[in-house]
Specification:
330 residues, globular
């Protein structure tokens, strides 16, 4: 058994070396793709706000993901993307219900009153909820710095959720956006087992297609809104589908295939900061000082939690000479 174990470890290390050999190191195109993803995903928050005055939150989500589904279907045909196994369809359906349908309806509904910068900071807290859920669902351990990171982010979330009210009352609209962050975290946790059999892009495409079918339940009245809405609002919703919804995921998949997971993931910390700039240019929105402080606390806590996870992964890999791999997705 001792020699068999040693042979297996050497074989795993050899396979890992082969995998690294077949994935070229990240050049300027990979970094450009990661930065493009940041800009596109950051623009989604003001884009939603631009469409909402003339569309309901349900119809913004439907129009966005109907557009994204068409673009992704064309890309899938061009790249000959495989179909999912029928046994995995129930799990993809649950992920689509939580991570696409509910997430977008909750985010859109919250952004009726919550400005773009606040929404982007609250959604950026999703890794904190992932870490907490992993304690119970995946039986992962949390050490001191992980708990400190969660506490720091919770303090930031509290500042953001009370920033729009007087007397330090909790803003219900901000809580709706926060529930979208929880949905995103559950979606990411639920994806983990599927990522052993499918790429991150395949998982996203399947979820978007199924989520769009779910959102069709809200199609009554959409054609009337399209007819009455100005082109700027309809164009914003279509933009959300083509660029943050489809192009963003393609560029992210390209970046992930050529950069280390931790390197690519570090770009995602920039999304709320870029969202502030785009919201100012597009809508003239500027966050309050309280929101900025809260947002910085949220990001600081997320960085602490993610750094804790990366160090733990490195420590777990050392006894096995790099035989274990970890997939990270932002």
């Amino acid at each position: 058994m001792k020699y068999l174990s040693l042979h297996l470890r050497k074989s795993q290390s050899h396979r890992k070396a082969q995998t690294l050999h077949h994935h070229p190191p990240g050049g300027w195109r990979a970094y450009a793709a990661a930065m493009l993803t940041v800009i596109l995903w950051a623009s989604a928050f003001p884009g939603i706000r631009a469409a909402l005055p003339h569309y309901t939150p349900f119809h913004v989500a439907l129009l966005r993901y109907a557009t994204a589904s068409i673009v992704l279907a064309v890309y899938a045909l061009f790249t000959h993307m495989r179909l999912p196994h029928w046994r995995d369809l129930p799990r993809f359906a649950v992920l689509a219900l939580v991570g696409i349908a509910y997430y977008n309806v909750a985010l859109n509904g919250g952004e009726v009153r919550v400005p773009s910068a606040e929404a982007s900071f609250l959604v950026a807290s999703a890794p904190i909820f992932m870490a907490a859920e992993a304690l119970f669902l995946l039986k992962e351990r949390m050490r001191l710095w992980g708990w400190i990171g969660i506490a720091v982010s919770c303090a930031g979330i509290t500042l953001i959720t009370v920033s729009q009210t007087t007397g330090f009352r909790v803003d219900a609209w901000a809580l709706l956006v926060l529930s979208a962050a929880v949905a995103q975290s559950l979606y990411s946790i639920g994806q983990k087992s599927l990522l052993n059999r499918y790429s991150a892009f395949e998982c996203t495409a399947y979820a978007i297609w199924i989520g769009t079918i779910v959102l069709l339940l809200f199609s009554p009245g959409l054609l009337t809104e399209i007819r009455l809405a100005p082109f700027s609002a309809t164009g914003a919703a279509i933009y959300l589908g083509i660029f943050p919804g489809a192009v963003g995921y393609v560029s992210w998949a390209y970046a992930l295939s050529r950069l280390a997971g931790s390197t690519a993931g570090s770009f995602l910390y920039l999304v709320p900061l870029v969202a502030i700039g785009i919201a100012w240019l597009w809508l003239g929105e500027l966050p309050s000082l309280l929101v900025l402080w809260g947002g910085l606390l949220v990001l600081a806590g997320v960085i602490l939690v993610n750094t804790h996870k990366q160090r733990r992964a490195i420590n777990e890999e050392k006894p096995f000479h790099g035989s274990r791999t970890q997939h990270e997705e932002g």
